[in-house]
Amino acid sequence: NSACQAPYDNQDIECMLLDCVKRKMMTYMLQDLSCVRCGEVTQYNLAERCRNKFCAGDFKTTVDKESVGQLLKTFLGVAIHYKMPLLKEQVTFIFRMNPDMREKYDVHLDEVDTNAQQTGED
Fold it and tell me: 2 burial class (0-12, 13-18, 19+ CB within 10 angstroms)?
């Protein structure tokens, strides 16, 4: 804080970022599907096409995977730079469980683990 010259509590910030990651992931997993053509949100879980009378369009997710992946990569960088082990663990777990996303965003978890060992985090 530049006004009072008191440092921010790193653990408080890490907890807020962890909450943000958890909420974003929950939003992604529980999101609605909307019609590409008419934009209507479907209320039928297993419908393949829009049931609007004159539409029959395909569905798309309301939260795209790319925005989630980019956010996770950013959080991983923040966690490493500011030495936030819980945030780093959460984000690396998500990337481990999603190899396609890990590959798309060029995340090398072996390098992340090596950096953690060199800095003495684990």
Answer: exposed
- Any idea which residue has 């393949």 for tokens? 48
Nearest to 60 by CA among 50, 68, 73: 50
Tell me the pLDDT of the chain (122 aa) as tens digits. Answer: 567 778 889 999 999 999 999 999 999 999 999 999 999 999 888 888 998 888 889 999 999 999 999 999 999 999 999 999 999 999 999 999 999 999 999 998 887 766 656 666 55
Contact 84, 14 (CB under 8 A): yes
In angstroms and rounded to an integer, the radius of gyration of the C-alpha atoms of the chain is 19
